[in-house]
Amino acid sequence: MAKEENKLEKIVSLVKRRGFIFQGSEIYGGLAGIYDYGPLGTELRHNIKQYFWDKFIAEREDVYGMSAAILMPKRVWEASGHTELFTDPLVECKICHERVRADQPEAIAGHENTHKKEKGKMAWSESKVFNLLVETKLGASEKSATEAYLRGEITQGVHVNFKNILDSMHPKLPFGIGQIGKAFRNEITPRDFLFRQREFEQMELQYYIKPDEKTGKEQFEYWKNFALDWYYGLGFKKENLRLRQHAENERAHYAKDAWDIEYYTPFAGWKEACGIHHRGDWDLKRHSEYSGEDLSYYDDETKERFIPWDIECSGGVDRAVLFVLSEAFTEDEMNGEARIYLRLLPKIAPVKVAVFPLLKNKPDLVFKAKEVYGVLKKKIPQMMFDDNGNIGKRYRRQDEIGTPWCVTIDFQTLEDSTITVRDRDSGKQERKNIDGLDKYFEEMLR
């Protein structure tokens, strides 16, 4: 597949212009790898997270939801291996002293391109190990302050609550615990917009099973395919997703086996969207050892006590947003004019239906349009009313934000209570009765 280098620039321009995503603290110069979500980006992100919650948690009888704290004591990260092993190789430019990842040739090349005049003299330090955890201290006194970290992954919040879930919910194996939440990594070289950030959000499932090789293989295969199907449900073409197994020297310290669901980005090739990891008993065993708490499971039927194995599905919310935008970003021509639109699935589009009066200076049309908007809003919360500019410009705005349908109230509406419904992808319009319009869109959204 051919790369389209400028597509990312087009996406970044569109999402800022239309209120999806902004550079964090932009008026103060911004922070690298930090982004703020505007009104439409927040809705898109919410819809993706809700879809994850529904499929991985709410619709299942064997999975419990939770929300763990962001701040966790240092001992947690010693037990998980992060203080020792959560590292990247770092090199420092001897000219300007900027640091980049030693294992990212593109970062090194990009830095050298910004110093073309000095390129002949370019020199790098020897590679060093750099820990990605973000450290802080809690408490008013320097002497008594507690060392803590902003969590580098949301996973550990589930494992340290394993006993609490057992004692409060009394689940039977196999069972899962799912959550969505923020994580923080002091990335050396944040890059590719939302792909590699310092503050980001994860959606994860930890699924606990009996420690048995046959069961482990079956569950691992099941969750690989379940997660892949979930990503297809976001509207990705089959050729743009793939499963790739990690080589032995590529696996994380906790992994018995590991696969990635990768998405083909037009601007950077294949990139990880989600990891499916067989974590074995690494986490629960380590937290039992470091905390002194018994995190074993007692099987009432077999009268056995053991540390369960864990199968993990871990995906980035922000990466899902980026990849969805990349997949949906479309350039075509309509009625002899070039246009850009987001071909988003209706279930994740930030606005489902936009309602327009044909003319904003005609009170009867505006009144009727607001009446129709009010009726639809009760059934479809993600709506927009727009009377700014001519009707063509309004259609183009809604196309750019991915709104599947536009409803226009015109003079015929005042005569026979019909409106026009315009389809985003084809531009086709058809007349519908106002009566039953809410049911029509509810059915379309299914």
From TrEMBL:
- This protein's source sits in the domain of life called Bacteria
Whether Aminoacyl-tRNA synthetase counts among this entry's keywords is yes
Which key words tag this protein in UniProt? Answer: Aminoacyl-tRNA synthetase, ATP-binding, Cytoplasm, Ligase, Nucleotide-binding, Protein biosynthesis
Q: What is this protein called?
A: Glycine--tRNA ligase
Which SUPFAM superfamilies does the UniProt record give?
Class II aaRS ABD-related (SSF52954), Class II aaRS and biotin synthetases (SSF55681)
**Keyword Magnesium tagged:** no
Which GO-annotated molecular functions does the record name? ATP binding; bis(5'-nucleosyl)-tetraphosphatase (asymmetrical) activity; glycine-tRNA ligase activity
| Record-level GO cellular component terms | cytoplasm; extracellular exosome; microvesicle
Q: Which PANTHER family does this chain map to?
A: DNA POLYMERASE SUBUNIT GAMMA-2, MITOCHONDRIAL, GLYCYL-TRNA SYNTHETASE/DNA POLYMERASE SUBUNIT GAMMA-2
